[in-house]
UniProtKB/TrEMBL annotation:
Localization per record: Cell membrane
Gene Ontology biological process: transmembrane transport
Protein name: Peptide/nickel transport system permease protein
Membrane topology recorded in Swiss-Prot or TrEMBL: Multi-pass membrane protein
UniProt-listed PROSITE patterns: ABC_TM1
Domain of life: Bacteria
Predominant place of localization: membrane
Keyword flag Cell membrane: yes
Pfam families: BPD_transp_1 (PF00528), OppC_N (PF12911)
Transmembrane stretches, start-end: 12-34, 84-108, 129-158, 178-201, 213-234, 246-268
Species in which this protein is naturally found: Fontibacillus panacisegetis
Length: 278
C-alpha cells in the first residue's frame, strides 16, 4: 500500500526524469545515435517522406529528408545537442547572476533592494523576444553571443523569486541568531540563506530551461541564431515552412519535438514544486 502511495505521489518525477534522461542521452551522444551525417547532401534524395528508402545509398530515412537531401533525424539529434547545450549554459549563468542579486537585494533591503529591483522592473517592461532581437542585432549572431543574450533575458525571474523568499528567511530565528553572534553578512547569505533557497532556484531553473529552448528556437527561426548551416530546431522549422504543403515533416516534426521537450521539462518543474511545498 505504501509503495502505491509513493508511486502515486512521484509519478511526475519518475516519468519526467526518465524522459529527460532519454532526451539528454540521445542528444548529447548524437554522433552515436544519428544514423547519417547531418550535413551530407544528396540531390537524389530530396524531400523523401519518412520511412522511405534512400536512392543514392542503402538505408531508410526514418523521418525523411529535407530540401537538400539531408537526413531529418540526424539533424534533429544534432540540433537538440546544440539547443540543450545553449539552454543549460544560459540557465546556469542566469541562475547564478539572478540568485546572487535576489539574495543580496532581499537580505540588505533598503536602497540596495530598490536599485536592483528597479533595474529588474525596467528589463521586465521590455518583452524578452524584443530584447533578444535588439541584443543580437548589436552583438551579432554566433553561439557565444546567443548564450549571452539568453542569460541576460533570464536573470530577472531568478532575482525576483529568490528575493521574495529571502525576505521571509532573513526574519527566521537561525538568521537572527547568526547576526547576534556577529557572523558576517556574506557568511550568513552563503551558509544560511542560500541552502534554503535551493529548491526554489532549481524549480526556476527547470522552468527557465524550457523558456530558453523556445527563445533560442525562435531566434533561429528568424535567422538570428547560429550559422544557418548549423542544424537547430528553430532553423529546421524555418527551412521547412516553404514546403509545408508538400513536405509536412520538415516543420511539423521539429515543432513536435520542441513541444514534447518543453512539456517534459514543465512536468519535471511541476514535480519539483510539489516536492518543495511538501
Amino acid at each position: 500500500m505504501k509503495k502505491k502511495l509513493v508511486l502515486r505521489g512521484n509519478w511526475k518525477g519518475i516519468i519526467s526524469i526518465g524522459l529527460l534522461g532519454i532526451i539528454f542521452a540521445v542528444t548529447i551522444f548524437a554522433p552515436w545515435f544519428a544514423p547519417f551525417d547531418p550535413y551530407q547532401q544528396s540531390l537524389q534524395d530530396i524531400l523523401i517522406p519518412p520511412l522511405s528508402h534512400y536512392t543514392s545509398h542503402p538505408g531508410i530515412s526514418v523521418l525523411g529528408t529535407d530540401q537538400l537531401g539531408r537526413d531529418v533525424l540526424s539533424r534533429l539529434l544534432y540540433g537538440g545537442q546544440l539547443s540543450l547545450w545553449m539552454s543549460i549554459v544560459s540557465v546556469l549563468f542566469a541562475g547564478i547572476t539572478g540568485s546572487a542579486i535576489g539574495i543580496i537585494a532581499g537580505y540588505f533591503g533598503g536602497k540596495v533592494d530598490a536599485v536592483m529591483m528597479r533595474l529588474a522592473d525596467i528589463q521586465l517592461s521590455i518583452p524578452s523576444m524584443l530584447l533578444a532581437i535588439v541584443m543580437v542585432a548589436v552583438l551579432g549572431s554566433g553561439l557565444t553571443n546567443i548564450v549571452i543574450v539568453l542569460s541576460i533575458t533570464g536573470w530577472v525571474t531568478f532575482a525576483r523569486v529568490v528575493r521574495s523568499q529571502v525576505l521571509s528567511l532573513k526574519e527566521m530565528e537561525f538568521v537572527e541568531a547568526a547576526k547576534a553572534m556577529g557572523v558576517p553578512s556574506l557568511i550568513i547569505m552563503w551558509r544560511h540563506i542560500l541552502p534554503n533557497t535551493w529548491f526554489t532556484i532549481l524549480t526556476q531553473a527547470s522552468l527557465q530551461m524550457s523558456r530558453m529552448i523556445l527563445l533560442a528556437a525562435s531566434l533561429s527561426f528568424l535567422g538570428l541564431g547560429v550559422d544557418v548551416s548549423t542544424p537547430t530546431w528553430g532553423g529546421m522549422i524555418n527551412d521547412g515552412k516553404n514546403y509545408i504543403s508538400s513536405a509536412w515533416w520538415l516543420s511539423t516534426i521539429p515543432g513536435l519535438v520542441i513541444a514534447f521537450v518543453i512539456l517534459t521539462i514543465n512536468l519535471f518543474s511541476d514535480w519539483l514544486r510539489e516536492k518543495s511545498e511538501g
